[in-house]
DNA sequence: TATATTTAAGTTGTGTACAATTTAATTTTA
DNA sequence: TAAAATTAAATTGTACACAACTTAAATATA
C-alpha cells in the first residue's frame, strides 16, 4: 500500500466531493444571483439577523480577507446592509435588507432540490450527516459555528 | 426542522472539513514549495509519469483554466516539464524532472504526518474512507480518476 | 476531400481562500 | 492613566476554481 497513491488519500475525496456538490448548487443559486459562499452568509443571516462580520466568519470558518469583498457583493446585490457597532466601532454589524429577507422564501426549496440532485435517501443522508458532524467535532471545526 | 438552517446542510461540512484538512497540509507542503492542488498533481505524476494535462484534469476534476497556470508554477519550481505530443499536437504531455522524481522521497512521510494531525485511528480512517468512496461513487466523481 | 464537428489547451474575467500586514478601536497592565 | 497588548476589519498579494470563450489540431461526415 503506497500512502502517496491518490486512492489512499482521505482529503482528496473531501476536496472533490465538496467541489462537486457546490457545482450542483449553481443552477439553483445563479437565478438568485448568489454564489455558494454568498448563500452560506445568507443562511447565517436568515438564522440570526444583526450579526458581526466576525461572528459570521466564526460560523463559516472564513476570515475578513474573504468576507470583506463577499459582503461588498451582497450589499451591491441589495440583500444586506452594513454599519459599525456604535458600542464598539471596531465591529461591523451586518443586517438583512427587506429584499434579503424576502429572498429566504425564494431559497426555501433549494435544500430539497439539492437532495434530489444528490440522489440520497433519508437513511443515507443521515448516515453521511452523522459521520461528517463527528469528524468536524474531531477536527474541532464546530466550536463557534454551531452547525452541529 | 428548518432546511435552511446551517446545521441541516450536508454540503457545508464537506466544504468546511475540506478547507480545514488542506490548511493542515500547509506546514508539510510549504517546505517542499507546494500548495495542496500542486501536491495533488505531483501525486498523479508519481503514480504515472508522462500523462496529458487532460488526464490529470480527469483524475483531479480540474479543467485547463485551473491546471494551465498550476502547471506553469510547477515548471517554475523545477518539478515538471511539458511538451506537445507529436502524435497529437493538441495534447500537452507532462513529465517529472529528476528533481520532481526525487521530491517523492521527501513527500513520503506526509500522509503519516497528516494522519497524526487529524488524530484518527485505523478504524476511523477506514470508516470515513469507505463512506467517502461510496458517496463519490453516487455522485459519479470516480469514473476516470480512479481514486477508489 | 472539403466542410463541419469535436477535442485539448489556453485565455479572460469573476469570485473566492488565506497568509501577512495595516489601521483603528478597545482592553489590559505596568 | 499612559503605554502595551489585543481585537476587528480592511488591505495586499498569491493561488486556486470555473464559466465562457478562443485557437489550433484532429476526426467525422456529407
UniProtKB/TrEMBL annotation, chains A, B:
Alphabetically ordered keywords of this record: Cytoplasm, DNA-binding, Transcription, Transcription regulation
Gene Ontology biological-process entries: response to stress
GO molecular function: DNA binding; DNA-binding transcription factor activity
Main location: cytoplasm
PROSITE patterns listed in its UniProt record: HTH_MARR_2 (PS50995)
Domain HTH marR-type: 7-137
PANTHER family documented for this protein: ORGANIC HYDROPEROXIDE RESISTANCE TRANSCRIPTIONAL REGULATOR, TRANSCRIPTIONAL REGULATOR, MARR FAMILY
An example Gene Ontology CC term for this record: cytoplasm
Name of the protein in question: MarR family transcriptional regulator
Highest rank taxon of the organism: Bacteria
InterPro entries: HTH_MarR-typ, MarR/SlyA-like, Transc_reg_Sar_Rot_HTH, WH-like_DNA-bd_sf, WH_DNA-bd_sf
Entry's localization field: Cytoplasm
SMART domains in UniProt: HTH_MARR
Amino acid at each position: 500500500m503506497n500512502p502517496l497513491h491518490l486512492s489512499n488519500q482521505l482529503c482528496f475525496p473531501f476536496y472533490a466531493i465538496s467541489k462537486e456538490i457546490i457545482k450542483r448548487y449553481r443552477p439553483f443559486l445563479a437565478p438568485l444571483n448568489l454564489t455558494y459562499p454568498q448563500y452560506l452568509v445568507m443562511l447565517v443571516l436568515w438564522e440570526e439577523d444583526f450579526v458581526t462580520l466576525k461572528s459570521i466568519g466564526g460560523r463559516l470558518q472564513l476570515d475578513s480577507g474573504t468576507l470583506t469583498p463577499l459582503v461588498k457583493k451582497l450589499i451591491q446585490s441589495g440583500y444586506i446592509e452594513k454599519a459599525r457597532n456604535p458600542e464598539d466601532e471596531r465591529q461591523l454589524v451586518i443586517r438583512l435588507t427587506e429584499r434579503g429577507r424576502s429572498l429566504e422564501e425564494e431559497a426555501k426549496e433549494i435544500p430539497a432540490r439539492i437532495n434530489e440532485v444528490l440522489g440520497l435517501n433519508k437513511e443515507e443522508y443521515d448516515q453521511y450527516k452523522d459521520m461528517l458532524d463527528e469528524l468536524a467535532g474531531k477536527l474541532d471545526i464546530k466550536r463557534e459555528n454551531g452547525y452541529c
